[in-house]
Write a structure and sequence with these properties.
- The longest helix has 15 residues.
- This protein is an alpha/beta fold.
- The strands form five sheets. The protein has a nine-stranded mixed sheet, with helices on both faces. An eight-stranded mixed sheet has the order 7-6-5-3-4-8-9-19, sandwiched between helices.
- The chain folds into three domains: about 230 residues, Rossmann fold, CATH 3.40.50.12780; about 70 residues, Luciferase, domain 3; about 100 residues, ANL, C-terminal domain (GMP Synthetase, Chain A, domain 3), CATH 3.30.300.
- The N and C termini lie far apart (about 50 Å).
- Helices cover about 30% and strands about 25% of the residues.
């Protein structure tokens, strides 16, 4: 099976079930199949197999069509994060070199701002007509609703997702059809399917579709279930959507769940249909999970561990394990669970040996879902693999029962609101400020976002600046969610004998209140 085969497979089993519900629009599985075929055939008229087709949009039915229709044409769907700045978009588009760029009308201004810096043959617009572009519906109408006659292989590139590296430059994670389907199949055989008592299961996708978490759409479509798309995350809209469509299952980041629990309007809506909630993208504070269970006693929770390069999850802490841990106070609630059935996970010491339980080491993964490599970056690809084993860069440890704990995030990565933020990228911007001599970016605990970005800086001799100035400077050069939310001014950053900044010491000093935050 290939990624583009999923709509036809689902339509064979559930032709009249709603595959995509978006606001007042509904698309059945048979309609999804036909429109995906139309898109594939239409794209073959303006591009060639092997080309990249990029998309910049919020969640919408057109995005769902692209998930399948682009790989179905033998092309690679390139995901663009709409929260990025124009300069960041320009780099990714320049690196991926898509032939076709599909843009929602509200983001066309960002593309116009960099139009002279990117080389794209065709621009397709979603929504209102935009001069110089082809309307998505016009493109769709030009294709035939029949299976495209194109040779596509399991190892051909299906999805291209960019993830920032420690150098500050995004890297394109190449996910082949085999990789994407490997993650989907792993989830299907490893995660609980607790919908036996639900007459009409309905799944709601809350994560942005540019995120690898969007692979949940493929999982639900292979089950032939009804799926509701949220355009973007908004608590009251989410409540209303659950009530209106009888949503039985969904997934969210812990920060999103915390926002829902604190929202004053929640009690006004009927959420009784909800039975299952997955969470991920960052750690879930136990206090938040306990509150969620108290407010939603009929909802079962599950979580996992994965990353973009793995096309999804490779570890799972099931709903049954959550129940046992919450009832009995078991420490596994702080773990990411046990290995999923179709992936192999190791924790290895610096000498490459398997770490015994209780010993920290780097997490390595092997399986069909592991990325094929980094786009046009042979050096990064070579560094990421030892034979078939992918180095996640995360440090973890097992317990005696096979549960895995994440000890430290890869390369000091910060996770804020479910978004990965790499300190080096923010530091590079800070170093461009006239007053900055040294900069180190670290994460600090935040009750709303999980973590907040904190910059610890020292100024050049004779130069001064303010926290507001530095935060505003960063906002001008990188996506707003990456900017520091607080600044700490010090005379000198702590370093080891080789001159490396001791970020662990900074975190400890921040936690004890020794460092003073300015905003």
């Amino acid at each position: 099976m290939l990624v583009g085969d999923i709509p036809a497979t689902a339509a064979h089993h559930a032709p009249d079930v709603v595959a995509v519900q978006f606001q007042d629009q509904a698309m059945t599985y048979s309609q999804l199949r036909d429109r995906c075929w139309r898109l594939s055939n239409a794209l073959l008229g303006i591009a060639a197999p092997g080309d990249r087709v990029a998309i910049l949009a919020e969640n919408c039915p057109e995005y769902a069509l692209c998930y399948y229709g682009v790989p179905g044409a033998g092309m690679a769907l390139t995901f663009l994060n709409y929260r990025l700045s124009p300069a960041e978009l320009a780099y990714i588009i320049g690196n991926a070199e898509p032939t076709v760029l599909i843009v929602e009308d509200k983001f066309m201004g960002a593309i116009e701002a960099i139009r002279d810096r990117i080389d794209v043959r065709t621009i397709i617009s979603i929504g209102a007509p935009v001069p110089g572009s082809l309307a998505f519906e016009t493109l769709l109408a030009s294709g035939q609703p029949e299976a495209p006659e194109v040779a596509v292989d399991d190892d051909d590139l299906a999805w291209l997702l960019y993830t920032s590296g420690t150098t500050g430059l995004p890297k394109g994670a190449m996910l082949s059809h085999r990789n994407v389907l490997g993650a989907v199949m792993n989830a299907l055989v490893s995660w609980d399917r607790d919908d036996g008592e639900v007459a009409k299961p309905v799944y709601m996708l809350t994560f942005p579709m540019y995120h690898v978490a969007g692979y949940a759409l493929l999982i639900q479509h292979l089950r032939g279930q009804a799926v509701v798309l949220m355009q973007n995350f908004d608590p009251e809209t989410l409540f209303a959507t659950i009530e209106r469509h009888g949503v039985t299952a969904t997934s969210a980041a812990p920060t999103m769940i915390a926002m829902l629990l604190d929202h004053p309007s929640m009690s006004r809506y009927d959420l009784s249909s909800l039975r299952n909630m997955g969470y991920g993208a960052s750690a879930m504070p136990a206090a938040v999970l306990l509150r969620a269970r108290e407010r939603w006693p009929n909802v079962r929770f599950a979580t996992g561990f994965g990353m973009t390069e793995l096309a999804g999850n490779v570890m799972v802490l099931t709903a049954e394990e959550h129940d046992r841990a919450l009832d009995d106070g078991l420490p596994i609630l702080n773990s990411v669970g046990r290995q999923m059935l179709l992936s192999q996970v190791r924790v290895v010491t610096e000498d490459g040996r398997d770490a015994p339980p209780g010993t920290e080491g780097e997490i390595l993964v092997r399986g069909d879902q592991v990325l094929s490599g980094y786009w046009r970056n042979a050096e990064a690809t070579a560094k990421a693999f030892t034979g078939p084993w992918f180095h996640t860069g995360d440090v973890g440890r097992w317990n005696d029962d096979g549960y895995l704990w994440i000890v430290d995030r890869k390369k000091d990565m910060i996770v804020s609101g479910g978004e990965n933020i790499y300190p080096r990228e923010v530091e590079e911007v800070l170093y461009r400020h006239r007053a900055i001599r040294e900069a180190a970016v670290i994460g600090a605990e935040d009750p709303t976002w999980g973590e907040q970005v904190v910059a610890v800086v020292s100024c050049r001799l004779g130069e001064t600046t303010s926290a507001a100035d530095l935060i505003g400077f960063c906002r001008e050069h990188i996506a707003s969610y990456k900017k520091p939310r607080a600044i700490v001014f010090v005379d000198e950053l702590p370093k080891n004998a080789s001159g490396k900044v001791l970020k662990r010491e900074l975190r400890e000093r921040l936690a004890t209140g020794e460092l003073v935050l300015e905003r």
